[in-house]
Amino acid sequence: MNEQTPRTPSRRKVLRTTAGAAGAGLGIAAAGGAGQIAQAATGSAPAVSPEAATSAVRKRRGATMAGVPFEGRSTVRVALVGLGNRGGSMINNYLALPWVRVVAVCDPVRVKAEKAAAAVVAAGQPAPALYTHGEDDYENLFTRTDVDFVHVATPWDSHFAIARSAMLHGKHVGVECPIAMELDELWELVDLSEQTRRHCMQLENCCYGRNEMRVLRMAHAGRFGELLHGAGAYNHDLRGLMFSPTYYEGPWRRLWHTRLRGDLYPNHGFGPVANYMDVNRGDRVVSISSFGTPALGLAEYRAAHMPAGDPSWKETYIESDRTISVVRTAKGRLIRLEHDVSTPHPYSRINSLGGTRGVFEDYPARIYLEPDHKDDVWGDFSAYAAEFDHWLWKEHANPPGGHGGMDYIMLYRLMQCLQLGLPPDFDVYDAATWTAPVPLSHASIKANGAPQEIPDFTRGEWTKARSGVDSAKPART
Predict the structure, then answer these.
(1) Mean of the per-residue pLDDT values for the chain?
(2) CB under 8 Å to 344, separation ≥6 — which residues?
(3) Given Cys at both, which of 153, 202, 272, 392 links 431, Cβ 3.0 to 4.6 Å?
(4) pTM for the whole thing?
(5) Where are the beta strands (DSSP E) in 48-191?
(6) Radius of gyration of the chain, Cα coordinates, nearest whole angstrom
(7) Helices marked H in 58-153 — which ranges?
(8) Per residue in 70-112, pLDDT tens?
């Protein structure tokens, strides 16, 4: 959970970034996929047929989890694994929900677990059990019979193992971004979700941003016409935080810049645009082509700010300062993804959507739709709030918590689904899809931008329309 240095390669194989990663080692090629990728590269057709777009389907080991509801319950019992910057900040969001109880907390740094437990007690709940005996103490936590949902907020290389263990112990699990780092791990999480009948979700808070949810509803109402393109990003200058001796528990995040070249954090940008386009709910992504700049930013920052002899001087950075990817869907739509955390840049997730009737662009928010706007002058996006704001934002206009309230909105909705016995707004197929650019962008960059096939994690279910984040308000709340 709080890893100080790269581990020796283990069963999770977190250092699988050598020459074989561009090919079979990442499980990228699939029978029948070459023709699809060639078509995507040349743009020879406006769309990909459903038959071609399912060429990478693997044999299902259990029934689909698409649309499967949670078991309803009056009280949702939650355990949190990882209580650093992210996990520690989520405690109060759970405590703000009267039908949720935090029954256990886990972190090898005991003081962090004790701080979280104190917050639970201060909120009037019984003291949660503490699991602080090493990085694998979550295994003991998962043997409990009073846990309905596990929230995982640990360093990235542990996400897969913890989510896997949670499902094998009969728990629903939500994982902070990204859900895993390798393609075979994504497939295993899909398989386990189907086999265990437990939901495994990416806790993608940006899908619940007010702007994102408004654009989603407008897209579904046809205000953009036929959708053509979108863009999302994680452009966030993290140099100071990655070199800080105290912000992260060790240099784990910076060390990923010594391992992979591609988009390390695609989910915040990819998830919302995938929702706009009903990816896995009528369309699906079929290929990704990625390009990366030289890796100069972190070394330059280190030279300017880190003293001689600092352990970071032993690191060689290979992660592209800016990664740009183009994702193609079965309907021929394009999604541009960007990632840049190692050069000066104001924060931006880009968050753009375009169709035959107009376009929205964020940072700052602006819109241009026909027939509402003319003369090539951007319109006021706030003018659409009354009609198109999601019911969650109408009910919670000033939500508590971080990131402008979208953390709270995400957990409120997820815990509501668990309590009322509703299907989650997104599932393991979305988690795998939104995370697939991590290994595949790395492979594409190593292959000089050659398109990489994105598997059909739904195994054909993507052709069926179903609900998602643009959810109807439950009759009972």
Answers:
(1) 89
(2) 237
(3) 202
(4) 0.89
(5) 76-81, 100-106, 129-131, 149-152, 172-175
(6) 22
(7) 85-95, 110-122, 138-141
(8) 999 999 999 999 999 899 999 999 999 999 999 999 999 999 9
